[in-house]
Write a structure and sequence with these properties.
- The structure holds 3 protein chains of 3 kinds.
- Chain A has 2 domains: 11-69, no CATH class; 70-360, no CATH class.
- Chain A has 15 helices and 7 strands.
- Chain A has helices at residues 24-36, 40-49, 60-89, 100-106, 129-138, 148-157, 190-194, 211-224, 231-248, 252-263, 266-280, 289-293, 299-312, 323-340, 343-358, and strands spanning 96-99, 120-123, 141-143, 164-166, 172-176, 198-199, 206-208.
- Chain A is globular.
- By secondary structure, chain A is an alpha/beta fold.
- In chain A, helix 2 packs across helix 3 and helix 8 packs antiparallel against helix 9 (231-248).
- Chain A has a 7-stranded mixed sheet with strand order 3-4-5-2-1-7-6.
- By secondary structure, chain B is of the alpha+beta class.
- Chain B has 2 domains: 3-111, no CATH class; 115-303, no CATH class.
- Chain B is built from 11 helices and 16 strands.
- Chain B has helices spanning 8-16, 36-45, 71-74, 96-111, 140-147, 181-189, 214-217, 247-256, 261-264, 266-277, 289-303, and strands spanning 20-24, 27-33, 60-66, 77-82, 91-92, 115-125, 128-133, 153-156, 159-163, 169-170, 176-179, 199-202, 205-210, 225-234, 241-244, 280-286.
- In chain B, helix 5 (140-147) runs parallel beside helix 6 (181-189).
- Chain B is globular.
- Chain C has helices spanning 47-57, 64-75, 82-94, and strands spanning 14-17, 23-28, 31-36, 41-45, 62-63, 98-99.
- In chain C, strands 5-1-6 form a 3-stranded antiparallel sheet. A 3-stranded antiparallel sheet of chain C has the order 2-3-4.
- The longest helix of chain C has 13 residues, at 82-94.
- Chains in contact: A-B, A-C, B-C.
- The interface between A and B is large, with 34 and 39 residues.
Chain lengths: 370, 305, 100
């Protein structure tokens, strides 16, 4: 009996209302692929929504149910973290803008369903960033990154302080002042974003990005980050946001178009929309199709990027791995760093990162871990 | 079908090819390995264990093989691969079998959150279970190994699996891990026991595994109701001393000794509260296995009207 | 009497329950264990800290004097010392269950 191969995961979201008909071996593989792609929790939520518990092979549901327990626990934990952060920064004169997962959760947006969170990302007024760092440290956060080179990388080349770790809770917070690296081709002035933030509750200091900026952030993050463990997840998030906001926001698509031009994020938006259409069928309304098409970069880079993104978005799993996929992933990784740092610095940084991968901090010895 | 019904050739063929499917309580493992120690260890220690059927769901697919590269000729190492990742650093090839057992424990403890998983041994007699939580080195495995050869049934020596639905404890019945001095103690206490070869120089010292009694393996589908929570402590030369321990205190200590208490949130809290409320909790200090068996039997006797 | 008495300046310090907490209580034998479901922390509390926390759980902010009165009544013990209460209060603030 040949084991199933290929990407079983992505097709599930092409037809989200259909209960998947899979064999025992296929369910094993889907669960395994979902775990690799950090989408097990989303799959679990999907399974719960479709009432699949009785339709899975015996034993399979436990994996999804277990993941739902993690989701529930993390939702509570994110609420707590956001509250702690808010209290720590309450005395400062800056809005506190939640980004990504924390924003989706606190604003009750679709990508929050079935989500597992990692760090909390916030955006603050650039002029207050030092004050924010001090206030967080006074409330128990410390520098997480102790390597001096990486510290400099974060501060100089990326758009954020090095991550901060809370000494008691072990949670991590990333503080940003904009949504893309300041040195990249797609740099965005944070002040523009702050103009459109929306409070979570009336009078709340805690805010989230405006819907258009949320979508553009998602596109820019996917396009510019270089780490592809969760490319598929981020595209699912983006698809969720598009489908949600096109209903809740008047004139959403024309405004998205205009805002992408205002922030200089047309190219990431274009690429992200191509992928979202390819994988899930989502499209801007027909009258605007031509306008969105015109966002595309030149034909050569478009084809190359389309190929690279298309391959690189498959879940990283032995059953999906091929030379082509690894090359694509590497090509995108190099490109992301090029977007972020002047070329002559890229090789030095990548070589160092690669070196660190061969001599990583020790994984815990299994005999010592409980 | 049980593992010992396979020929050696068939066992080797499965391990080197599509994988050997083994059941442990509710879990299905598929194991692939070309390492001879793994083949030998499995054949010896899982002889009475049920194999998975073709239609059985495999919870954890893992492989244990030599790390490729120049190294393998100088100081061969093995690593455990799960879902295309290697969660742990490689270990010397001599430690391949213990690595397999630790990996199987890790698979369960890292991914299963529909039950409360305690880091504890669990044994049962007369339908009542004793949960023995303990940090490494407290002698719980020695105690467990002794009890299960004097009338107590093995549910697990490492993973106490408490149902969130009804508070019962499930049986995994895998080989019991033993190390250093406890090996000699258990060998003399249970002359007929079957042990795997000893791996030396692990981070825990010398390690081996003891085969679980086959009638215990046969009962891996039978859960048990917890009745006692006993925190053991081996103290050389000590007489048996059983001291009641506050239930509230025991609740917190169990939480500290659980793999996933912090993941489960409120259901985990309620499960632990129910567990301690329904159990007598003790600290237990001992040095002789016979004393321990007598103490435990005494508890059983008092619990049964 | 010329100017010998000190006038209390400013408001009395008040404390309140952290609105972000969700508490689940179990009485185990004679001790309280409480699970806070957002932070995911579990606490074993003696009678006094438990009574203090429960007093705040009712919702109203309390100053020390009000708290002392409430707790003495709830526990039926008039001997509870102000200083002892302050210590307990500080511990609960450190755990972020109670805020100033």
């Amino acid at each position: 009996m040949t084991a199933p191969r290929g990407d079983l995961l992505t097709p599930l979201w092409r037809h989200p209302r259909q209960a998947p008909e899979l064999s025992v071996r296929e369910w094993e593989l889907v669960i395994s692929q979902a775990r690799c792609a950090r989408l097990l929790s989303r799959l679990a939520q999907h399974g719960a929504d479709l009432g699949l518990v009785d339709r899975l092979p015996r034993g399979a549901w436990r994996h999804l149910d277990s993941e739902l327990a993690v989701v529930a626990r993390q939702r509570a934990a994110v609420h707590w973290e956001v509250d702690c952060i808010t209290r720590a920064l309450a005395h400062l004169d800056t809005p506190v803008v939640l980004l990504k997962g924390a924003a989706y959760l606190m604003a009750d947006l679709p990508p929050a369903r079935g989500r597992v969170f990692n760090d909390i990302d916030i955006l603050v007024d650039r002029r207050q960033i030092d004050a924010v760092e001090s206030a967080l440290m006074a409330a128990g956060w410390i520098a997480h990154e102790r390597d001096a080179y990486n510290q400099r990388y974060y501060r100089t080349w990326m758009h954020e302080l090095p991550p901060l770790l809370h000494v008691a809770r072990g949670s991590v917070i990333d503080v940003h002042h904009t949504i893309t690296p300041p040195t990249s081709r797609f740099a965005v002035d944070g002040a523009l974003l702050l103009q459109q933030v929306r409070p979570l509750h009336l009078g709340d200091r805690v805010t989230v990005l405006g819907p258009l900026d949320m979508v553009l952030h998602s596109a820019a993050h996917l396009f510019g980050e270089g780490e592809f463990d969760h490319g598929l997840r981020d595209l699912l998030d983006m698809d969720d946001l598009l489908r949600h906001f096109q209903v809740t926001e008047p004139e959403f698509w024309p405004q998205l178009l205009a805002r992408s031009q205002e922030l200089g994020l047309q190219v990431p938006l274009y690429h992200a929309l191509v992928q979202v259409h390819r994988l899930f069928g989502t499209l801007p309304p027909a009258p605007l199709a031509a306008a969105f098409q015109s966002l595309q970069p030149n034909a050569v880079s478009r084809r190359a990027m389309g190929w690279a993104l298309g391959r690189a978005l498959q879940p990283i799993h032995p059953a999906c791995a091929s030379v082509e996929t690894s090359l694509a992933r590497f090509a995108l990784y190099v490109r992301s760093h090029w977007l972020r740092m002047p070329a002559h610095l890229v090789i030095r940084h990548l070589a160092r990162k690669a070196w660190m991968r061969w001599f990583p901090p020790k994984d815990p010895d299994p005999t010592l871990t409980v | 079908m049980l593992l010992h019904e396979l020929t050696q050739a068939e066992l080797a063929h499965r391990l080197r090819g599509d994988g050997l499917g083994l059941r442990s309580g509710p879990f299905g493992f598929r194991i692939r390995s070309r390492v001879p120690h793994v083949f030998q260890g499995l054949g010896l220690l899982y002889a009475a264990s049920p194999l998975l059927g073709d239609a059985d769901f495999i919870d954890f697919d893992l492989s244990l093989d030599l790390v490729p590269g120049v190294r393998r000729w100088l100081r061969p190492q093995v690593h455990f691969v799960f879902d295309g990742t290697t969660p742990f650093e490689p270990l010397p090839a001599d430690h391949a079998y213990p690595l397999l057992e630790w990996s199987m424990n890790w698979c369960i403890s890292a991914h299963v959150h529909d039950s409360l998983l305690l880091h504890s041994a669990v044994v049962e007699r007369g339908g009542l279970a004793a949960i023995l939580p303990a940090p490494p080195g407290s002698g719980k495995s020695t105690l467990c190994a002794g009890l299960i050869h004097r009338g107590w049934r093995l549910l697990s020596d490492e993973l106490g699996m408490v149902s969130l639905q009804d508070g019962s404890v499930g049986a995994l019945v895998r080989p019991v891990s033993l190390k250093n001095e406890s090996l000699a103690v258990v060998r003399s206490y249970v002359p007929d026991a079957v042990f795997n070869r000893v791996s030396v120089g692990t981070s825990k010292g010398s390690v081996t595994h003891m085969r679980a009694p086959s009638d215990h393996v046969a009962r891996m589908a039978d859960p048990a109701r917890p009745r006692w929570v006993i925190f053991p402590r081996y103290v050389a030369g000590s007489p048996p001393v059983l001291t009641p321990r506050s239930r509230a205190d025991s609740l917190l200590e169990l939480g500290r000794n659980a793999f996933n208490y912090t993941v489960l949130g409120r259901p985990g809290f309620e499960a632990l509260a129910n567990l301690v409320t329904g159990s007598d909790c003790y600290d237990f200090q001992y040095s002789q296995l016979d004393d321990a068996v007598a103490t435990f039997d005494g508890l059983l006797h008092r619990a049964q009207p | 009497m010329a100017g010998s008495s000190l006038v209390q300046q400013g408001a009395e310090r008040v404390w309140r329950i952290n609105p972000a907490v969700g508490l689940h209580w179990r009485l185990v034998d004679d001790q309280w264990v409480v699970f806070e479901h957002n932070s995911g922390t579990t606490h074993q509390l003696d009678a006094l800290p438990a009574a203090v926390l429960m007093a705040f759980e009712a919702g109203r902010p309390l100053d020390v004097r009000q708290l002392l009165e409430q707790v003495r009544e709830d526990l039926g013990q008039q001997e509870i010392m102000h200083a002892h209460l302050q210590t307990v209060l500080q511990q609960l603030v450190q755990l972020e269950l109670v805020l100033q």
